[in-house]
Amino acid sequence: MSASALLVSALILGGVCTFFGVSIALANRKLRVWEDPRIAEVEELLPGTNCGACGTPGCRAFAEALVKEEHQPSGCTVMGPDDVDVVAEYLGVDAGEAQKRVARLLCAGSSDVAVQLAPYQGHHTCQAAAAVTGGGKGCAWGCLGLADCAEACDFDAIHMSANDLPVVNPDLCTACNDCVVVCPKDLFVLMPIEQKILVQCKSLLEGEPAQELCEVACTGCGICAADAAEGLIAITDGLAVVDYSKNESASEDAIRRCPTNAIVWIDGAQFPELQVPERSFAV
Amino acid sequence: MFGKDFFKHGVHPPEFKELTAQEPTRRIPFPKEIILPLAQHIGAPAVPLVKVGDRVERGDKIADAGGFVSVPIHASASGVVTKIARAPHPNGSWSEAIHLEVDTWSAQEPRPRIISNWQENLSPKEIIDAIQQGGLVGMGGAAFPTHVKLSPPPEQKLDLILLNGCECEPYLTTDHRSMVEFPDRVHLGTRILMKCLGVQKAIVGIERNKPDAIEIMRATVPSDLDIEILPLEVKYPQGAEKMLIKAVTNREVPTGGLPMHIGVVVQNVASVATIAEIFETGLPLIERILTVTGRGVRQPRNLIVPIGTPLEDILQACGGFAEDAAEVIMGGPMMGIAQGNLRTPILKGTSGVVVLTTEDVKPKDVYPCIRCGHCLDACPVFLDPQILGSLGLHQDYETMMEHHLSTCMLCGCCSYVCPSRIPLSHIFGVAKASLRSQGVRV
Lengths: 283, 442
What we know:
The structure holds two protein chains of two kinds.
Chain A: H1 3-31, H2 37-45, H3 59-67, H4 81-91, E1 101-105, H5 126-131, H6 148-152, E2 158-160, E3 166-168, H7 178-182, E4 188-192, E5 197-199, H8 207-213, H9 223-227, E6 233-236, E7 239-242, H10 253-256, E8 263-265
Helix pairs in contact in A: 2-3
Chain B: E1 26-27, E2 33-37, E3 47-48, E4 55-56, E5 61-64, E6 73-74, E7 79-88, E8 94-102, H1 118-121, H2 124-133, H3 146-149, E9 160-165, H4 174-181, H5 183-197, E10 201-207, H6 211-219, E11 226-232, H7 241-249, E12 264-268, H8 269-280, E13 287-293, E14 301-306, H9 311-317, E15 325-330, E16 337-339, E17 352-357, H10 374-378, H11 385-393, H12 397-402, H13 413-417, H14 424-437
Parallel strand pairs in B: 1-14, 9-10, 9-12, 10-11, 13-17
Antiparallel strand pairs in B: 2-8, 3-5, 4-7, 5-6, 7-8, 13-14, 15-16, 15-17
Helix pairs in contact in B: 2-5, 4-6, 5-8, 11-14
C-alpha cells in the first residue's frame, strides 16, 4: 500500500470527523435548551419517593414547581421540617406554613364489634372480597380488614390491628392519597390534623338496624347534632355529618353523649388503644 | 342457516340436576314480610308509587318504571307497606326497597286485569307496552328488561326468535320445569312475540339432558306456528346468549354488538311463559319458578315463590339447612353470587338458590400458573385467561382492556379448569368492578 493511499484515507476520515464535530458544536449552540441547574439540585434534596402527596406527578415535577415558585417547600409532606428549611434556604424562599394532613378511617367496626355474617374465603384482598356480595361483613359500608391499604402504603404508616382494623401512624402518614384510592369501600379521607372531631362510620342504616350490625355504628340519633355548636353537625341519610368549615366551634361536648361512640375526638392518632409501636423506617 | 348444535370450547361440569329434575313445582305459604328492592333489573331503578301505611292488593303496581330501560314493580302479595327503607340486595349492597307486611287472612286473590283480546285489538307497540307494564325482565339471571329487547330500531330486520331452554348451569332446573309443566304457556308467549316482532320462525334450544322437556315441547307445538325444538349438546355455557346463537345459527354476534344486530332475538323460556301469563291471566311478574337445591338443603325442590320472599322463608319451606350446609348461592354455582345475609330477598332474575356443603366448598391452596393452557381451551369467547390473570394480579387493568377484558362474560370456565386453582374469573370480576368505578365501559 502506497503512502498516498494512507494519506487519502486519513484525510477523508479526518474531514468527515471535522464536519460532524462542527455540526454537533453548531447544533449544540443553536438547539440548546437551557435548564435551571437549581432544578436538579433541588430534586437531589427532595426525598425521591414520587408519592404525589404534594399534588404534582412526582419529585422532579415538584422541584420544577419549587424553582418556578409555584409551590412552597412545605408542600412536601414527606420531608421533616429541617429538610424543608434546607430546601427553602437553598432557593432563598419562604418555607411556607404546612398544614399537616393524615389519613383517617371512617369505620371503627373491628371484628370484635361488627357482625360477620359469613366467612370470606378466596383471593385475599379487599377489592376481591368487595366483588363477592361486598364481603362477609354484615355492614355493607364497613372495613373488610383484608389490608389492601396497608399493602398500598409506601411509608409503612398503616398496620393492621389484631382485630382487623387498619391503624394509621400519623407521624409516618404523608397524606399521599394511596389508601384513599385503593379502599373499595372509600373509607379513608385525608384530614388536617387539627380537625379533631370525627364520625367513624359510613353506614347509611338508621337506628336499630344499624346497631344490630355493628356496636359502634352511627344510628343517626342526632344527640351530637343537638349538643354541638349551632350548625356544626347535621344528620344526613342516617349519618352525622360534620361541617368542617365551622371547625373552630368544635368541642368535646359534642361527643360525650353518643350512645355508640361512633363520633370521637381524636388528638393525634386514631384508635390510640390499637396503635402499634413505631418501627424503624427509612425512605 | 343452521350451525352444528354446539359452540367451540366451554366445559362440562357435573350436572347435579337429578336432585330436583323430577320435582314438580309447588307453592309455599306466603312469608310474613316481602321485601321488594327498587333496583331488580339492569337499568334505572323503579320509582315508588306507594307510601308507608298504604294497603296494596296482590298484583298492584307499587313502583313505576324509572325510564325506558326500566320496568314497574308489583306487589307480590296483599298487605300493608310498612316501610320504604334500605334492605340487603343480592349484590351485597343495602338498597332502597319497599317492605310489605303480608295479610295473614287474605285470600291473595289478584284483581282481574286480563288482556284477552290482544290478538285482534293490540298493535305490536301496545303489546310491548303491556309487557313493560307487566314488569317483565329476563328471568335467566341477567334481568334485562324484556321490552327493550323487543324494541329494535326500525331499520333492523329480525328473522329469528331463539328461545333459551338450555339451562346449562349445574343444579338448576327452573327452565326445565317451566317447559315440562307449562309448555302451552311457552308456546303462547312465543306466539305473542312472533306477532309483535313480525317474525315467522322460532327455535327452542334445549340441552339433550332434558329429554322429557324436548318431548313435551315437541308434542305441544301449535300446528300453525313454525316453532322448531332443537336438542343441543350438553355443555356450559350453552345458555349464554352468544354461545346459543353460534350453536343454533352459526352466526356470531360482533364484539360490543347485540343479537338483534344479526337478526336474532333471544328470550329465556321462563320469561316467554311469563309473557303469556301477563296476557292470559293478567298477572304481572309477581312470582317465579325457583329451584332450591344442593346437598346443603334438606329437601331440594322446585318452588313457585312470590318475588321478594326472603331467603330464610324459602329455605325453611325446603326443610332448612342440612347439618353441613356451608354456602348459599343465588343463581347457579358457576355464575351465581354467594350470599351472606339470609334476609336477602329473591328478585325477578333469581333462577335458583343453591346450598353447598362444607365438602363442596373446602378451601384449596392456590398454586402459581404453570402455563398449561387449559384455560385457553375452555374460554368460550377465545380470550387468553392466562395473560389476563397475571395482568389482573398486578392490577394492570388498562392492559387487560387491550386483551379484550370487556368480551369476558365471567362464565367461570377458566377458573373451573385451572389445575392451580387460580380464581381467574374472580380476578376478572374485580378488574371489571375497578374499571367501572373509574367510568370505563366494560
